[in-house]
Amino acid sequence: MKSLVTGATGFLGSAVMLCLLKAGHEVRLLVRSNSDRRNIENLPVEISEGDLRDHHSLEKAVHGCDYLFHVAADYRLWVPDPQTMYDINVQGTKALIIAAANAGLKRIIYTSSVAALGLTTDGTPADEETPVTLEQINGHYKRSKYIAEQTVKVLINQHQLPVVIVNPSAPIGPRDIRPTPTGRIVLDTLHDKMPAYINTGLNIGHVDDIAHGHLLACEKGKTGERYILGGDNMTLLEVLDTLDEIIGQRKKRFSLPVNLMLPVAWCMEKIAMVTHKEPRATQDSIRMAKKMMFFSSEKASRELGYQYRPARLALEDAVNWYQNNGYCN
Q1: Any domain includes 197
Q2: Does any domain span residue 23?
Q3: Which of 82, 20, 328, 6 is nearest to 183 (CA)?
Q4: CATH at residue 118
């Protein structure tokens, strides 16, 4: 059995790739010609160069495969040209799934995000049925993932495609080479750059557990269904305190009101338009922080047998990986 994986040079995609190799899959990777390939070096995988915006390369990549794990996405909280994000996350996803369907693949796992889901108003964990509309979603990344998931659902219903949707929360762990926004929290703490925090919350899952959830979705998931793959719900302060315990140096921090951060984020965005470097905070990310982004993986646990380790272990693995790979020098 041969599986095509997109996004394997990145964080979650590399974990999915390793999980499939361990399970005995032959693995082909769709890789852009200019990608950082550290996460796929010296592994028994087949490389198919291409791009989600190059539809011919997608047809070539899916040919001869049995399964598709579409993990790749443009995951940035700020982009100078938002259209690029929609071209990759929405149109690229649509083109790839159509190519996979035309090639007769047995099963397609589409990696959406909890960003495409609704949040509760009282801070209790949201699930797959918590309602949300496009108008309620802040930020181009979240909006693009919401539109992409809706597009995938239309394809499933119109063409009876064998697609299962998974919605990962905030993955943490090894091989976050970029790093992701959540990984930056770990790095900033390691570098003593987190003197303050916002009263927000997130769902922390070990990247390898979330990757295994992809395999379970392929084996046991129901066509057309979506499954949250996450871990423990923690406030940002709890995450920072846990990191302090892991590092062994307790820090005092102060709470910042969300509204106070909005003009700071506005300034950061204006500077980013000149430097073309992603700002450390955006207005959309600050607005998102007004809610507790808590989620439940109960459906995945019940229907797929999904399990996750404590968030502290995910944070420990992330800290150890950054320390052992030159990120703390």
Answers
A1: no
A2: yes
A3: 328
A4: 3.40.50.720
Check residue 264 and give its pLDDT: 79
For residue 33, which amino acid is it? S
Domain with 8 in it: 2-172+205-230+295-309
Binning pLDDT at 50, 70 and 90, where does residue 12 land?
very high
Q: Which long-range contacts (CB under 8 A, 24 or more apart) does 181-189 make?
A: 181/77, 181/285, 183/11, 183/318, 183/322, 184/280, 185/236, 185/239, 185/240, 185/243, 186/243, 186/315, 186/318, 186/319, 186/322, 187/322, 187/327, 189/240, 189/243, 189/244, 189/247
Q: How far apart are CA 246 and CA 243, in angstroms?
A: 5
Taking the mean position of all CA atoms in its chain, how far away is CA 277?
21
Whether residue 274 is predicted with pLDDT greater than 90 in this model: the reply is no
Residue-level pLDDT at 322: 98
Q: Give domain status of residue 327, yes or no.
A: no
Alpha carbon separation from 53 to 57, 140, 297, 319 (Å, rounded): 9, 18, 32, 35
**What pLDDT does residue 15 have?**
98
Q: What's the pLDDT at 226?
A: 98
Give the chain's domain count: 1
Which amino acid would we find at residue 313? L
129 CB-contact burial (10 Å; exposed 0-12 / middle 13-18 / buried 19+): exposed
Separation between Cα atoms, residue 186 and residue 179, nearest integer Å: 10
Joined tokens for residue 185: 């929290």
* Ranges assigned E (strand) in 145-278: 163-168, 170-172, 196-197, 201-206, 226-229, 232-235, 254-255
Q: What is the mean pLDDT of residues 194-211?
A: 95
